[in-house]
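To whoever is on call:

I kicked off a structure prediction for a single chain this morning and the downstream step that reads the tokens threw a length-mismatch warning. I double-checked the sequence; it's 327 residues and nothing unusual in it as far as I can see. Pasting both halves so you can look.
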Amino acid sequence: MIAHIAVALSLTLLAPIAEPPAAAELPAVAKLPAAELSTAQADTLPLPGVSVKYLEKAGDPVRLSTYGLGTKSTYLRARTGNTFAQQPTLSEAAVSPDAATVAGVPKSYRAGYDSLLLTDRASGKGKRVRTVKKPLAASYISWSRDSKRVALTVEQKVGGKWRAVGFTVVDVVTGTARTVRPAGLDGAADFWWSPGGDLVARFGDGLRTYRVSDGATLRTFAGVGLPTGPEDAYSPSGSRLTTWCPSRFKEQLCLVNPATGKIASRVAVSPEMLFGWWDESHVIAVMAHQGAYRLSVVDLTGKVTRVLAAIPSQTWKANLWLTFRRG
């Protein structure tokens, strides 16, 4: 996640070209009510350790579930209620889409192996699944939409820099892990799930999808821009996919039609970072604001329709990350 924040902050926007393609290239979706900019009747959730207060309303389509500062601190929301507790042994954590399981990456190896901790939220019972052997590391948790599997990006330090060499998939039910090293992998790749159960990662100036069983290339989306993060870049319906626009465009955020593999439209907005989709017609973005930042709901015209939190500059620069669970 830290790597993607750095990418977002370093994007360079060049001169505009022709008018964007018609948005009609995207599959039609039902029009949803606009999010509200007002914070009236919102519950204020203090976030320990980061000097942030998150504003949540009943009926929000997503719920903040974990957050942290780089790999230094990780906070997990209680199973019920609005409190967050630090997880001192974890470098990252994410709650499954069905809210039943927490996946966490420990800060240290055990017996020479990296691992994934899976904790049942109802019983509190956990199990440790070995992933890769040192000096490899497996991190960047991505849950499949059916909550049955976790994908991790496997990295190795080369010349003092971590580079992706493959992925590990953990089966939540069996507690087993399998590591695959696809051929010709982009060293800056981070793996995450497609709605159909394949893995997606950066490849050159676009994206590539991989078969989970053996890492075979299924499809390459060339020239569509870099992924907006290891969080799910697909909209809830799967009909839209966000990327950082290629530098030939003046806009920063692009919407790709997964069916055609082409950029269907571009959004005139310049977020510092995206943390996934709010609903089918809004994304969750960090926007610069008066010398600091705001976590905002942004529609697909680039308009901020709701502010979720004010983020101090020092907190954002300390590599703040957040994860959300739908429903």
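Update from on-call: the warning came from a stale cache, not from the record. Cleared it. Sanity check on the structure: The longest strand covers residues 161-171.
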